[in-house]
Amino acid sequence: MVWNGRKLLLGITGSIAAYKSTWIVRHLKSKGADVQVVCTPDALGFVTPLTLSTLSERPVYSEFVKSAGGEWVNHVELGMWADLILIAPCSAQTLAKMAGGLCDNLLMAVYLSARCPVWFAPAMDIDMWKHPATAKNVKELTSRANHRMLGPANGALASGLNGVGRMAEPQELIDALEAHWASTNADVLPQATEDLRNKMVLITAGPTREAIDDVRYISNHSSGKMGYALAEACLEQGARVVLISGPVTLTPPQGLYAFVAVESAHEMQKAVESYRTKFDIGIFCAAVADFRPVHKTTGKIKKQDAVTRIEMHPNPDILAEVGRNKQPQQFLVGFALESADGIAEARRKKSTKNCDMMILNRINNKGAGFGADTNRVTLLSALGIRELPLASKKDIARDIIQHLILCYIPS
Ligand code: CTP
Hints:
- The radius of gyration is 25 Å and the shape is elongated.
- The chain is built from 13 helices and 19 strands.
- It folds into two domains: about 5-185, Rossmann fold (3-Layer(aba) Sandwich), CATH 3.40.50; about 200-410, Rossmann fold (3-Layer(aba) Sandwich).
- The two termini are about 40 Å apart.
- It is α/β, with parallel strands linked by helices.
- The chain has helices at about 20-30, 50-55, 75-80, 90-100, 105-115, 125-130, 130-140, 170-185, 225-235, 265-275, 320-325, 340-350, 395-405, and strands at about 5-10, 35-40, 85-90, 120, 145-150, 155, 160-165, 200-205, 210, 215-220, 240-245, 260, 280-285, 290-295, 310-315, 330-340, 355-360, 375-380, 385-390.
- The strands form five sheets. An eight-stranded mixed β-sheet has the order 12-11-8-13-16-17-18-19, with helices on both faces. Strands 2-1-3-4-5 form a five-stranded parallel β-sheet, sandwiched between helices.
- Bound molecules: cytidine-5'-triphosphate.
- Cytidine-5'-triphosphate binds near residues 286 and 319.
- The site of cytidine-5'-triphosphate has 15 residues, from helix 11 and strand 16.
C-alpha cells in the first residue's frame, strides 16, 4: 500500500556507485513503485540504458531530444510527474550544478522544473567530499525546502582509500523512502497544485443507449471508468467539473459542479449544448453510439413480428459539432478508439474534430480498454506524441490532466 502507484524519478550521475542504481530500480519496482530513470551523459559510462529500461519497464532518458525521431523529452513534464526525485549516486559535479542552478543536461533541467521533494545520495572520493567547495554546496542544498541528503557513508572507496564518501547503501535509501511514504499517507497523495482552479471542465463519459423498443437498445461496452477518473483528476486540480454521463454503474465523484445522467446520443448532445459556451476545457471521453434505429417502437416488439432488419440513422457527432463552434479560449480533448493505424487515425480525428489533444486508445492493447481498471494510451498534442505506459485508470487520468495543464494556455 505504501508503495503502490508512487512515482519516483531516479537520477543517476557519473559515479562508480551507479551500478548500485540497478539494484535500487529493481527493488523499487518489486515494491510497486513506478520508476522513471534519467541519467546524466556521464552515468552512461557506468550503466547501460538497456539494463535500466528493462528493469524500470520505461524508456531511460538522458538527452533533451530522443535520438530516434528527434522527439523532444519534456523535462517540465518529467519534473511534474514525479512524487519524489532521488539522485543516487549524486556526483560532486551534479551536487555543484544543483547548488548553482546550472542546466547543461536533462537531469538538471528536470531538477530545476520539479515541485516535489528532492533527495540526493552523494558519492565521491574522501578528499572531494572534504573540499570546502563541496561542503559549501552541501550546506546550500540541505538548507533548501524539500531537499534531503542521505549519506554519504564511511568505508572503502573506489580510489582504494577509506573514509567518508561512499554512497549510502541502496537498502538504506529504500528504507528511508518507505518510512517517508508511510508517514505522509498510506495512499498516493493527489498532486494538489490546483492548476485548474476557476476553470470549468466538461466531461462526457460512458456509453450511450439507442432504443429499439421500450426494452431493447444498441450500445457498447464502455464502463465510464476513464471518464469518471478524469473527473476526479480535474477535481483534484480545483476545477468546476460538469460530468455528462451515459448509463454506467459508477457513483459520481463528490464535489462535482453538475452531474447530468443521459441515455441516448441525442440527450448527451443536448446536455453538452447547454454548457457549450460556458466551459473552458472539454474532455469527450464518451463512447457515443454512431447510429440509432430510425424508429423506436413503443412497447415491446413481439417475436411473431419477426424483425430481421433494423434501419439505422447516423447520430450527431457531438465532439465534431463542438469543435466546429470552438471558442478561442476553449481547449478540446477527444478520444480515438482504434484497432488499426492508431496514430494516423488519431491525428486525423484531432484535426477533423478541431481538438487540441487527442488520446489514442488501442483496442488490442493488453490490460487496456472497456471495463478494465487499467489503461495504456498515447497522447497527441502540441507537445508531440507521448506514450503513457500501462497504469491504473486513476493514474492515467492524473497524467493526462498534468499533460493537459502543460498544453493549456488560457488566452
Ligand atoms: N464522439 C462524439 N460523438 C459521436 C462520436 C464520437 O462526441 N457521435 C467523440 C468521442 O467521445 C471521442 C471522439 O469523438 O472523443 C472519437 O470517437 P471515436 O468513436 O473514436 O470515433 P468516431 O468519430 O466515432 O469514428 P469511428 O467510429 O469511425 O472510428
